[in-house]
Amino acid sequence: MKKILLAAALLSLAGTAFAAGKPCEELKSEIAAKIDAKGAVGYSLEVVDKGTSTNGKVVGSCEAGTKEIVYKRG
């Protein structure tokens, strides 16, 4: 019984952490590393509020979905 309660408590905490989302700067760094690994140069990543009109491609969502990371060439 104690094991079941412990497992339920851990799952509850994990769910809360997942729902909070990653901090934008952390996710932005991870995305930049992946783009750099593919040899891309001359790009920018910008954190914007979700739904903000931009001329780039949304490549990530952060802070519980309230912000987006936008990729722009040049």
Kindly summarize this structure in a few lines.
By secondary structure, the protein is an alpha+beta fold. It contains two helices and three strands.
Element layout with pairings:
Layout: H1 2-20, H2 24-37, E1 43-49, E2 57-62, E3 67-73
Antiparallel strand pairs: 1-3, 2-3
Characterize the structure shown:
The structure is a single chain. The chain is an alpha+beta fold and 74 residues long. The protein has one domain. 45% of the residues lie in helices and 27% in strands. The chain is built from 2 helices and 3 strands, in the order ααβββ. A 3-stranded antiparallel sheet has the order 1-3-2, covered by helices on one side. The longest helix has 19 residues, at 2-20. The protein is flat. Keywords: Signal. It comes from Pseudomonas saxonica.
List keywords for this structure.
74 residues; alpha+beta; three-stranded antiparallel sheet; 45% helix; disordered N terminus
Task: Estimate what percentage of residues fall within beta strands.
Answer: 25-35%
Instruction: Strand order, main sheet: write it out.
Output: 1-3-2
Strand tally, please? Answer: 3
Shape: flat
Measure the end-to-end span.
Answer: 59 Å
Number of helices: 2
Overall number of domains: 1
| Helix share bin | 40-55%
Averaged pLDDT? 80
Task: List unreliable stretches of 5+ residues.
Answer: 1-19
Q: Report on the biggest sheet.
A: 3 strands, antiparallel
**Which class best fits the helix and strand makeup?**
alpha+beta
| Whole-angstrom Rg | 17 Å
Instruction: List the secondary-structure elements in sequence, H or E.
Output: HHEEE
